[in-house]
């Protein structure tokens, strides 16, 4: 297994480009199943999770062709299987996103039941209940969700008990080809949900209300061929900003969008960062100062994203003062704090709240990544630690950060990959 070796100390300084959003690319690739012709997707990030989605589409019989500009042409007209197998789903829970589109387009879908994961139990009850309200018959057998419908799915009025990004996306895709109108209330408002809705509309769908808590989808008979450009990755953006804040650095991130991470920018400003923004760039300058502690609580968009919690926890770990962080989305998402404490951080946990007393510097140690964003927080910790930190199990990082060591090197970090055997 590959590891990252980081010699901490210096501030990050320089400019990098932000990649396309993983959490937008995954549902959009699933949405190509809805179209009656090829869909060309651009700004697709080069990541393990994306490769897993290519493999999944490939094993359904879908043709996926990648060109040198990282544009992907997906043609689902060659689909010949309706089975999303356990081997792929177990490596990426987002595989569940093929359920809605496959069912609404082909009338049948057999998708391995995704299990829990390091950050929590992550059920899919909202996905299944919504599809049943649209007329699907679903049974669980042999670890598979077997869904079918007689004729087309039917538009329904669905009130979600919890705000779920994945369930909103799955049901929106299912509703795009359903008979009649579907209204999803208490829908997720995340920018990636909006990106998916815009993509469906670019293919001839009729989704309105995206970015609000009520989505209205008027089902159409077919979606056509087309092309779509994936939005920038707000979590990758926030991660590099957090790394710059923790290291007292000064960075400019290009090809991003300052409007989709306001809650994070507000916290970074509270931490003492000078932030300036343009249409497609964000610059952060700590002016050499140590960050100040911040308090925050994760919640659905537009509030502070759970996917940025671990990275800001590391900023707090080296900040001046005491910061309190409450994680409300996933039950087990503060586990990285134990690894940070091994590097000299002072973090105590009280239920789903971390109380972080900032220390001047962290100390290098071998640490182990437990999930994608936790890994990023350990890399940031390595950048501010004295000595050489080795971050193990970085396959988690490769799932969601394109060329992380190259980008950090470009910002002056002393980081390299040690290939595993
Ligand atoms: C997506 C993101 C992930 C992010 C998360 C929350 C992708 C590929 N992943 O994950 O990076 O951390 O949103 O912003 O976009 N829940 C239920 N029942 C369900 C579905 C969800 O109870 O059927 C609960 C979950 O356990 C969790 C909460 O709802 O507590 C939010 O989860 P959800 O928004 O569905 O996360 P994902 O879509 O899996």
Indicate the mean pLDDT: 95
Helix content: 25-40%
The largest sheet is: 4 strands, mixed
Total strands: 26
General form: elongated
Backbone CA Rg: 21 Å
* Multimeric status of the protein: single chain
Bound molecules: uridine-diphosphate-N-acetylglucosamine
Terminal-residue CA separation:
6 Å
> Low-confidence parts lasting 5 or more residues at pLDDT below 50?
none
Kindly report the spatial arrangement of strands forming the biggest sheet.
23-25-1-26
* SS field, number of helical segments: 14
Strand content: 25-35%
Classify the secondary structure makeup into a structural class: alpha/beta
3D architecture notes:
Helix 8 (234-246) packs parallel to helix 12. The protein has helices at residues 22-31, 48-59, 86-89, 99-106, 125-133, 165-176, 191-202, 234-246, 262-270, 309-317, 336-342, 372-384, 395-400, 404-410; strands at residues 3-7, 13-17, 39-42, 63-66, 72-75, 83-84, 108-112, 137-141, 144-148, 157-159, 181-185, 206-208, 214-218, 226-229, 250-254, 274-277, 281-285, 296-297, 322-326, 346-350, 353-357, 362-363, 366-368, 385-386, 388-392, 414-418. It is built from 14 helices and 26 strands. It is 31% helix and 25% strand. By secondary structure, it is of the alpha/beta class. It is elongated, with a radius of gyration of 21 Å. The chain has a 4-stranded mixed beta sheet.
């Amino acid at each position: 297994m590959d590891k990252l070796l980081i010699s901490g100390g210096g501030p990050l300084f320089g400019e990098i480009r932000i990649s396309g959003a993983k959490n937008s690319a995954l549902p959009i690739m699933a949405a190509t199943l809805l179209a009656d012709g090829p869909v060309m997707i651009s700004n697709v990030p080069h990541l393990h999770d994306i490769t897993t989605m290519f493999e999944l589409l490939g094993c359904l019989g879908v043709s996926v062709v990648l060109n040198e500009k990282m544009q992907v042409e997906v043609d689902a007209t060659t689909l010949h299987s309706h089975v999303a197998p356990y081997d792929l789903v177990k490596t990426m829970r987002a595989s569940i996103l093929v359920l809605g589109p496959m069912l609404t387009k082909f009338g049948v879908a057999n998708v391995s039941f995704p299990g829990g994961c390091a950050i929590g139990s992550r059920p899919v009850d909202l996905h299944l209940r919504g599809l049943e309200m649209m007329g699907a018959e679903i049974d669980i057998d042999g670890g598979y969700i077997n869904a079918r419908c007689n004729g087309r799915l039917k538009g329904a009025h669905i009130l979600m008990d919890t705000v779920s990004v994945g369930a909103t996306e799955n049901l929106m895709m299912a509703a795009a080809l359903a008979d009649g109108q579907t209204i999803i209330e208490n829908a997720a408002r995340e920018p990636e949900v909006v990106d998916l809705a815009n993509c469906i509309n670019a293919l001839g769908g009729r989704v309105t209300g995206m970015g609000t808590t009520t989505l209205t989808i008027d089902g159409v008979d077919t979606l056509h061929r087309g092309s779509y450009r994936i939005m920038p990755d707000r979590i990758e953006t926030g991660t590099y900003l957090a790394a710059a804040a923790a290291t007292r650095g000064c960075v400019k991130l290009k090809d991003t969008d300052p409007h989709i991470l306001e809650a994070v920018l507000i916290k970074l400003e509270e931490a003492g960062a000078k932030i300036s923004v343009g249409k497609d760039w964000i610059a952060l300058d700590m002016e050499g100062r140590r960050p100040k502690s911040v308090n925050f609580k994760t919640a659905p968009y537009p509030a502070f994203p759970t996917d940025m919690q671990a990275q800001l926890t590391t900023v707090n770990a080296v900040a001046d003062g005491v910061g309190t962080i409450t994680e409300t989305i996933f039950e087990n998402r503060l586990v990285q704090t134990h690894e940070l404490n091994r590097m000299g951080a002072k973090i105590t946990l009280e239920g789903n709240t971390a109380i972080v007393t900032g220390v001047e510097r962290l100390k290098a140690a071998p640490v182990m990544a437990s999930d994608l964003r936790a890994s990023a927080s350990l890399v940031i910790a390595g950048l501010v630690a004295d000595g050489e930190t080795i971050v193990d199990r970085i396959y988690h990082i490769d799932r969601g950060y394109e060329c992380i060591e190259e980008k950090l090197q470009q910002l002056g970090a002393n980081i390299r990959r040690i290939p595993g055997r």
